[in-house]
């Protein structure tokens, strides 16, 4: 299955970066935010509310967000 075909609200991380990060997270809401960020990086959707949520998650996790963005950029499409 290509990355473009993945469902937007996946419960499984697609990147190794997020898989490793989730091992250290014990908060379901935080994990859901990071999964949302990853899926948005793979397939951004329009809308101010989504863009605001992504920017807030990026601001709270700048290094992780950059690493996810870099890994997503290297995935085959």
Keywords:
single chain, 77 residues, mainly alpha, 64% helix, 0% strand, globular
What is the gist of this entry?
With 77 residues, this protein is mainly alpha-helical. 64% of the residues lie in helices and 0% in strands.
Protein architecture, described:
This protein has one domain (24-77). Helix 1 (16-23) packs antiparallel against helix 4 (62-74). The longest helix has 15 residues, at 28-42. It has helices at residues 16-23, 28-42, 48-60, 62-74. Helices cover 64% and strands 0% of the residues.
Return residue spans where pLDDT drops below 50 for at least 5 consecutive residues.
1-7
Q: Tell the overall outline.
A: globular
Radius of gyration over all CA atoms, rounded:
12 Å
- Estimate the helix proportion, in percent: 55-70%
Strand percentage lies at under 5%
The structural domain count equals 1
Describe the biggest sheet? Answer: none
Mean pLDDT: 87
**N-to-C CA distance:** 10 Å
What is the number of beta strands?
0
SS-derived structural category: mainly alpha
Order of helices and strands: HHHH
Number of helices: 4
């Amino acid at each position: 299955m290509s990355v473009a075909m993945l469902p937007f609200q996946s419960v499984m991380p697609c990147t190794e970066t997020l898989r490793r990060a989730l091992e250290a997270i014990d908060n379901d809401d935080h994990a859901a935010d990071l999964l949302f960020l990853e899926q948005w990086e793979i397939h951004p959707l329009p809308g101010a509310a989504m863009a605001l949520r992504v920017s807030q998650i990026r601001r709270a996790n700048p290094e992780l967000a950059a690493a996810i963005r870099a890994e997503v950029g290297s995935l085959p499409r």
